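Sample A.
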Amino acid sequence: MSYTSPPIEKVFPKVESALSGLLHDGMSIMSGGFGLCGNAEACIDAIARSRVKNLTIISNNCGNAGQGLAVLLKNRQVSRVICSFVGGNPDLAELYMKGQVKVELSPQGTFAERIRAGGAGIAGFYTPTGVGTVVAEGKEVREIDGVRYLLERPLRADLAIVRAAVGDIDGNLRFYRTARNFNPIMAMAADVTIAEVDKLVHRGALDPDDVHLPGIFVKRVVEVREHRDVIEHRTTRTLVGRSGSSGESGESGKPGA
């Protein structure tokens, strides 16, 4: 006689309920996204409203031009940022120059691999990237086959907030094109992962071959249909034809993750 345990209820009605019991001062949060593409916007806004402070944010960048994670910077909720890109973020630059936020800059490939290592349970890895630069300060340097390498340690977080285009009630996720970016590896490298999905579907609606992230890595799911999606719209210009006519055409692919 076989026994099948009942499915775990992962779906929450609102972002606030999905975050309930998880937020506290001094916690670390991984946030998927590249620039403002693939951000869990509703989760970020809810964290801003919660007023938790002394956060460590682990993200490719901590927002951009006052948007995305930069909202948390403006609220003075962030004490440390681990990222690979700081351009276009005057809020982070200002707080860093004032000594109010610590910044650990990691080369982008190294940053991604540190997160992947955190999710895979790997204690560290050697990379030649950063040898002989400020990135190497305080790190072990080892020569292997005549090449010098840095020992980089993995990254993990208390919470990961990710954004997907489609998710089912078991937490299986499908992302939208490049909005996938850091979302899958961050979901694997946190104690708890919340998936903010544009569209929630029933069990079986996602073909197994279309699943980008298995639901085993997702603890909570919340459907959020409306997003600002500042930069996810593709706009194209019509080429001038032989007739000499030209024009503008805006073509929006599916926005969001």
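Sample B.
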Amino acid sequence: MSDNRNPLEGLTCPAPIPAKEKILLGHGSGGRLSAELLQEVFLPAFHNPVLAQLNDQAVVSVEGVRLAFTTDSFVVNPLFFPGGDIGSLAVYGTVNDLAMGGAEPLFLSAGFIIEEGLPIETLRRVVLSLRQAAEKVGVEVVTGDTKVVEKGKGDGLFINTSGIGRVAPGVDLSADRARPGDCIILSGTLGDHGIAILSQREGLEFETPIESDAAPLHTLVAAMLEAGHSIRCLRDPTRGGLSSTLNEIAVQSRVGMVIEESALPIREGVKGACELLGLDPLYVANEGKLVAIGAATEADQVLAAMHRHPLGAMARIVGKVVEAHSGVVTMRTYLGTSRIVDMLSGDQLPRIC
């Protein structure tokens, strides 16, 4: 069971957010500014034991049934991109937040904020894609809402989806449960989604076409949990990328982490695009990958189960949890040196999900 401590305690922030400071794009990056916003604004207002865990979902008990509940908003630009669109992304993103709590997804809601002037055909395409994604996952969209804002006030279309799932007895996953000696497993390649969005947004063409990795991860998670009962934490490294995700877990679990640069799977096209654009793939968003942290004794059998699943075929151990340097993530580089891998401080690629 998790205690009631503030999981952001110990995270170094430059200073409390001044009352007159305004919201920046970086406050939505999933990195350091996002953590500051949670610490200074949202947690003091809504603090409770469930919220304090700061997981991708809330797991609550209702008359003896454990339910996972989550919500997410999608503001991706452009609406359609290689490998997906805002409709399928809204389903997969929310389903994946449920899956990171070990939940079987059951129901979704869908709220649409539509800008005046959006072509009806565009909306039809998005709605059809959302429906097809829900059918693929096996969930129903059972409620929703629609709002229309004046032209110039909504940038086309925003979608909010909330999800409810069922958590099986004995499944207890949380970002505050990592322990020294645990293995860090990554399910596949980094940065595909963020670079696919950027290439479409900026009209960039690379030698190797890059598509978003957006996909529902619940069946992969089910296979992993069946193979290994000592998985302690699951996270999908979306905004802020792998680096911010590991830093969050390290702070919440009060442990250190060491990752191996040579073990990180990155497609050559993504690596080349990042080098060209001055981006670090550790901070680029993913929408169909997960990080698992669990006991080293079961790492091989969890990996074997992942390799049998199409979304885990490239899974590998990329690092370990350590007792030293609590709350800090370091990387052993190709050169054999070590460097600190900090949280994303700004926003490399806004409007990514």
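B remarks: The radius of gyration is 19 Å. Helices lie at 32-46, 86-99, 120-137, 192-202, 218-227, 241-253, 268-277, 299-307.
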